Automatic annotation (TrEMBL):
Keyword line: Membrane, Transmembrane, Transmembrane helix
SMART domains, per database record: DUF1751 (SM01160)
Name of the protein described by the UniProt record: UBA domain-containing protein Ucp14
Stretch list, region Disordered: 235-257
One cellular component (GO) term of this entry: membrane
Originating species: Metarhizium album (strain ARSEF 1941)
SUPFAM superfamilies, alphabetized: Rhomboid-like
Matching Gene3D superfamilies: Rhomboid-like (1.20.1540.10)
UniProt keyword Membrane present: yes
Entry GO MF terms: serine-type endopeptidase activity
Biased composition annotated in UniProt, kind: Polar residues: 238-247
Membrane topology: Multi-pass membrane protein
Cellular location(s): Membrane
């Protein structure tokens, strides 16, 4: 298991570990968490909104976050590095503002209980986890017995899948600095599902980082692959009953773009 075809994930993991170690060695960890009443209301240190997701302040959180990001690299492989990096950037902007804002609203209602927003990209991890949950199917399921009675019904017990360990790691990460980490995880999960459900503006969903930022050296080659992908999507739409118009003069290309179903129908017509 490596970071093959996942350069953005590799950068996220290495950058998270490096910044966390650097903050500890330089003794600047106190710059990366947010105390709502002190840092935001009293001293107006709004720059902390952009800084608190850059690193963690303890090694346990670094370990579980790095494990989570590593296991979520399959999302980058399915999407491609450019779309994956663009999603991380867009989600980081939402999760930089929404959790502290909710914390500020809940603080007076909870007698100061919601006042501490811990450092670390836990919201971004859960936004990626929402994509993993929706896109990646489980390979197998297994049942964990909850009683020692062998003759108990098959419905008893806890059913898990091969994806359960990933959820367990992320759940443990969200509980390390609660209630702030739990609130951040909830917001990240909500933002990830809102991105998939079309609740985020389409301009942000379709926005992409420049290709050179994710290692795409040739924009021309990237455009060719993008055109090929759209052509294949168009052919799949034709196969499901969605008609696509082709120029009448381009007969050779029209012949090449015919789906297999259309070719079979034409063969039966010739036989009849």
């Amino acid at each position: 298991m490596t970071f093959t075809n996942a350069p953005v994930t590799r950068l996220l993991v290495l950058g998270l570990v490096a910044t966390s170690i650097g903050a500890s060695m330089l003794d600047v960890k106190h710059y990366f968490y947010i105390s709502i009443d002190t840092h935001l209301w009293k001293y107006r240190q709004f720059w902390r909104l952009l800084a608190y997701q850059l690193c963690y302040t303890n090694s346990t959180e670094v370990l579980f976050a790095a494990m989570s990001l590593y296991n979520l690299r399959v999302v980058e492989r399915m999407w491609g590095s450019r779309k994956y990096a663009s999603f991380v950037v867009v989600c980081s902007l939402f999760t930089a503002i929404i959790p502290p804002l909710l914390m500020g609203v809940l603080r007076p209602l909870s007698a100061g209980f919601f006042n501490y927003m811990p450092a670390g990209p836990t919201p971004i991890v859960f936004a990626l986890l929402a994509q993993y949950h929706s896109m990646v199917p489980h390979v197998y399921k297994y049942r964990v017995a909850t009683s020692q009675n062998i003759q108990s019904s098959d419905s008893s017990g806890l059913t898990l899948s091969d994806k359960s360990y990933q959820y367990a790691i992320a759940l443990h990460l969200s509980l390390l600095e609660w209630p702030g980490s739990v609130l951040g995880a909830f917001v990240g999960w909500a933002v990830g599902n809102a991105w998939r459900g079309g609740l985020i503006p389409a301009s942000l969903v379709t926005w992409r980082l420049p290709g050179w930022m994710v290692g795409l050296r040739s924009h021309r080659r990237g455009a060719e692959f993008e055109g090929l992908r759209r052509r294949l999507e168009g052919e799949n739409g034709s196969a499901t009953g969605v008609s696509s118009s082709l120029p009448a003069s381009d007969g050779q290309h029209a012949e090449r773009r015919r789906t297999m179903g259309q070719q079979i129908v034409d063969q039966f017509r010739e036989a009849l």
